[in-house]
Automatic annotation (TrEMBL):
Protein name, entry field: Succinate dehydrogenase hydrophobic membrane anchor subunit
Cited InterPro entries: SQR/QFR_C/D, SuccDH_FuR_B_TM-su
GO cellular component: membrane
Keywords assigned by UniProt, alphabetized: Heme, Iron, Membrane, Metal-binding, Transmembrane, Transmembrane helix
Pfam families from the UniProt entry: Sdh_cyt
Record-annotated membrane-spanning stretches: 33-55, 114-136
Compartment(s) where it occurs, according to its Swiss-Prot or TrEMBL record: Membrane
Classification of source organism: Bacteria, Bacillati, Actinomycetota, Actinomycetes, Mycobacteriales
Residue span of region Disordered: 1-23
Coiled-coil region: none
Keyword Transcription regulation attributed: no
Superkingdom in the source lineage: Bacteria
Gene Ontology MF term list: metal ion binding
Length: 144
């Protein structure tokens, strides 16, 4: 397609006439929010994990003091329960979201994509459910 410009003509790029992907004006913003979640959860996980590693490995004699009694004392505090629960849930959701993206990128068949995502969601729910249960029902008075 040619258009005159000051007595001259030029060829318009075909991409202006037929863009590759139509622009969406609303609807599903799931991918945008998933992308934003990955950034926010990644930053928060860095803080939580580095804090966890520092407390576990560097303070008060390091790894030699880690035993059942240490965990029992730590999980007696709601603060540390929430800290560990946040790490567990953010790590699972962050990793699951990343794996969901990998499944979308590499699974060719819709049925394969569905079953892989189904297994991913089931495994995430099991790990988060079991971890949450352990954190909140941990009993330091185990009798053997």
């Amino acid at each position: 397609m040619t258009a005159p410009v000051l007595g001259k003509s030029y060829d318009r790029p075909a991409s202006l006439d037929a863009p590759r992907a139509p622009r969406r004006t609303g609807g599903n913003n799931f991918e945008k929010y998933a992308w934003l979640f990955m950034r926010a959860s990644g930053l928060l996980l860095v803080v939580l994990v580095i804090g966890h590693m520092f407390i576990m490995l560097m303070i008060d004699g390091g790894v030699q003091r880690l035993n059942f009694a240490f965990v029992a004392g730590r999980w007696a505090s709601p603060f540390w329960q929430l800290w560990d629960l946040s790490m567990l849930w953010l790590a699972q959701l962050h990793g699951g979201n990343g794996l969901r993206t990998v499944i979308d990128d590499y699974a060719r068949k819709d049925s394969t994509r569905f079953w892989l995502k189904f297994l991913l969601v089931v495994s995430m729910i099991l790990v988060m459910g079991t971890g949450t249960y352990v954190i909140f029902t941990f009993d330091p008075n185990i009798t053997g």
